[in-house]
Amino acid sequence: MSESSAEWPAVGLTLRVDGHEYPVPQVWIGDSLLAVLRERLDLDEPRDGCGVGECGACLVTLDGRPAAACLIPAVAAADRDVRTPQDAAFEIARDAVADAGASPCGFCAPALTVAITDLLRRTADPGPAAIREALAGIVCRCAESGRWIEAVARAKEAGIEDAGARPGPGDSGEMPMLVFEAGEPA
Ligand code: FES
Ligand code: FES
Fold it and tell me: How many CB atoms lie within 10 A of CB 50?
């Protein structure tokens, strides 16, 4: 990272996204990871919903932990492992969401794929209450929760827990669901 302007502080950084390295010049230090992924790297996913950490639409994983990309400064994600919903590791959940009709308008499908994958890596056989709790951070206007439960069942049946699992928060038992990470990483 190198500072380029004191008046309009910007830095050059390298993002590791879905296993690829992207040098990104002139990133304003206030830019969120979500803004850089969508506007600088031209990615359609994660989605841009509320922009303030309330809707869950912008879910990605950061070093294996689900996180709201709109709350993470891009500079805080530099040189860390960022996975978007388009990453191959989420393919099983993506198919399950589609097959279950769990995202009628399509807007929440990316966040659901990330959240369902994380849930099933942490919990082998979650019941309906655990599923609702795990997905509660995704504010959706058009899906029925029954479809979400079916999507989880389909993903589980397809063997998602074996699909390229990376260490997640649940592996240490410390984090029950979505992590809305703000500011510099610990
Ligand atoms: S866009 Fe709504 S939580 Fe990030
Ligand atoms: S799938 Fe349509 S708003 Fe959530």
Answer: 13
Measure 73 CA to ligand 1 centroid, in angstroms: 13
* Ligand 2 mean position, distance from CA 86 (Å): 18
Instruction: Name the residue at shortest CA distance from atom 1 of ligand 2.
Output: 103
* Nearest alpha carbon, ligand 1 atom 3: 53
pLDDT at 161: 67
Statement: 88-171 belongs to CATH 2.40.230: no
Domain ranges of the chain: 2-83, 88-171
Find the 137 Cα to ligand 1 centroid distance in Å.
10
Q: pLDDT by residue (tens digit) across 96-147?
A: 999 999 999 999 999 999 999 999 999 989 999 999 999 999 999 999 889 9
Structural contact between residues 74 and 35, judged by C-beta atoms closer than 8 angstroms: yes
Distance CA 171, CA 17 (A): 22
Contact 120, 156 (CB under 8 A): yes
